Amino acid sequence: MKSTTRAFGNALYVLPAIALIGLFVYYPLGANIVFSFFTFRAGNGAMEPAGFENLARLFEDPVIRTALWNNVLYAVASIVCQVFGSLIVAAWLTHLLGRRMGAFLRSVYFLPAVISMTVIALLFTFVFNARGGLLNELLSSIGLGHLQAAWLADPDTAMGAVISVSQWQSIGYVCMLYVVALQQIPQDYYEAASLDGAGRIRQFFTITVPQAKEMIFVAMILTISGAFTVFNEPYILTKGGPGNASQVLATYMYNQGFFQNQMGYASAIASLIFLITLLLSIVQMLSFRSGKD
Amino acid sequence: MRGNLRIAAAALAVAALALPLAACGSSEPGTNDGQVEIDFFHRWPNEPKNSYYADVVAEFEKKNPDIKVNVESVLNDAYKDKVKVVAGSANAPDVLFTWSGSFVNELVKSDALMDLGPWLEKDSAFRDSFYESQLTPFQIDGKQYGLPVGMQSKLFFYNKDVFEELGLTPPATWDEFIDVLDAIKESGRTPIEYGAQEQWTIAHYVGTLNQRVVDPAVFAADQDPAKGKFTDPGYVEALERFQDLTEYMNDDMTAVGHEIARNAWIAGDAPIMYMQSAEVGYFGEAKFDFGTFNFPAVDGGKGDPRELTGAPEGFAISKSTKHPDEAKRFLEFLLSKQNGIAYAEKAGELSAVKGAVEEADVPEISKELAQGIVDASAMTTWLDNAYDPQIVQAYLSETQLMLSGQQTPEGVMKAVQEAAKRVRDAS
């Protein structure tokens, strides 16, 4: 009896949080899936049932393919740069540099993560500007003038330019996560390994990487789901243009919903994004079996 | 005793929390001292118009102490997105900015705007103070949903000094135009400055070319969402003409924003640029004489070459407004002749109130431009205001790819036809 009242009391404490999450996360999530089956406009309650029309259109729409491909590129670049690149930087910062220098450089790398994305994106429009932008000027001053491009305006380079901005910003953040993990690895392991004659690189792969596995997993989830929900960078830098060359799922969803006023189709795209991130998370959870060992 | 104290403290805390809430509640309906609050939403957080509207509002409040006007503003593209969401909602602004054509139509379809017809019938003097041609673009199914604040037209602005130096005159036909462009190119200059990074600039070129080339009956029929097919070969030809023109433009056009291009034109980089009448206000630093000419006739084109591309923009009243009378009083003040004159003088815009620009103390070119709009045989509305947003999106993004050399005119029209089919099916 006593334990049930206690359980009830405990539940009472959790209730507000559950109610809030339910109202602001799960209800919209469910409503969004329902909305995918309707045709409606913003600012007007009239909803017409559309059956599977919106979902069918997802498969026919060539822009969805472009956007999906761009998201995949985003994810691949993010894994290479943020998950693996950051780990190398973090190992370098914690093991190879002195305490002072390491702390200083940590802040330097972390700084971009605290600058607002809007500011960064505006900054990079100057870097990538075709007329006298920093990057083009740099290229011409080091004799690589033939590589100059209209970075954000050329359909071939726009997506790459947008992706590079995100990497620039996020490496420091993920790096910080790794630094925390690496500092918890007992120094004895490294000493023992070096006594056995293992070099720095061997130590990195046999001690650092396995010990940081949990954090690699966290970084993986963060960057991949981030890559499939990315919005700010492409929206501010290119608005998905030129044409639809740098459209990602989230910007295309926004464009459909708020520019073309196709709220039902936008909901269908939102459901697609949710499905993709959900599947990816499940796959990752299963493959890493985290939290147990 | 102690328990009582604690309860008292708790009660106080609750009261402290509730008080500001209560205050919010009472001011909401705007019954403070009998003062009514109305919300005004426009699209100019930038100068000079932001302060122009702030001044107008301050003056209105001084003359009407019983009304308080809350102003909110966001820029251009953001406005387009935001207004679609707030209009029609419970928090809809009472008086709001709108473009004419499909934009006002979108708002009407969302059931967000008040039919101003009955009011204007009673107050016919107010109605007659506007140029008739500027009222029609705000009519949907014969009902007046908006009133014009400014007239807009799109013209080629040219550098008179360069034209004089090369012995050129403003062209009227396509061949003359190409001759002029060739002559400028031979003199070692880029003939036309163009910034195509923002997609609406594409709408202006393509919209005009479509009107010049395509049969007027087909052109008008395609503006009806239920009928638009876009299968006329004229549309492809219009895009081919556009491609011809790009040969005479700066190579980096797709990477350049309109403002940067305009500054380059003002700096004298290229002698010709396609711009809006309202942009004259930015030409202050130009060190040369400038003139204008309308988009030349296109050979074999079926449209009237004397038509001028452009459309008025204006204001509307929310259908859900709780203070229709106050909103009307504000709108009437906002669009008075006196403010029309001030609008021309302070913001360089062409007021749609009869005689306002004529009487205003503005450069001669502004008066000529206003007269040009009043005299035009007809106005061609902006492409991005003429069609459903789905068609506009396909049209502009595919044409932008065409400018980067990754799409053909036929490919653009194929995408447009697909979008038009979706729109037809939905209506």
What's the CATH architecture of the largest domain in chain B? 3-Layer(aba) Sandwich
The residue-averaged pLDDT of chain B reads 87
How large is the radius of gyration of chain B? 25 Å
**Approximate helicity band of chain A:** over 70%
Name some characteristics of this structure.
heterodimer; A: 293 residues; mainly alpha; MetI-like fold; 2 strands; 75% helix; flat; B: 427 residues; alpha/beta; D-Maltodextrin-Binding Protein, domain 2; 6-stranded mixed sheet; 4-stranded mixed sheet
Can you offer a commentary on this structure?
The complex is a heterodimer of chains A (293) and B (427). Chain A is mainly α and 293 residues long. Chain A has 13 helices and two strands; from the N terminus they run H-E-E-H-H-H-H-H-H-H-H-H-H-H-H. Chain A has helices at residues 2-35, 53-60, 62-96, 99-114, 117-128, 134-141, 158-183, 187-195, 200-211, 213-229, 232-237, 249-259, 263-288; strands at 38-39, 48-49. Chain A has a two-stranded antiparallel ribbon with strand order 1-2. The radius of gyration of chain A is 23 Å and the shape is flat. Chain A starts with a helix and ends in a 5-residue tail after the last helix. The relative contact order of chain A is 0.13. With 427 residues, chain B is of the alpha/beta class. Helix content of chain B is 50%, strand content 13%. Chain B has helices spanning 2-27, 49-63, 76-86, 102-109, 117-122, 124-128, 132-135, 160-165, 174-186, 200-213, 216-221, 233-246, 258-266, 324-334, 337-347, 356-359, 364-375, 383-386, 389-403, 409-426, and strands at residues 36-42, 67-73, 95-99, 139-140, 143-144, 147-151, 154-159, 192-193, 272-276, 290-293, 308-309, 313-317, 350-351, 379-380. At the A-B interface, helix 12 of A face helix 3 and helix 19 of B.
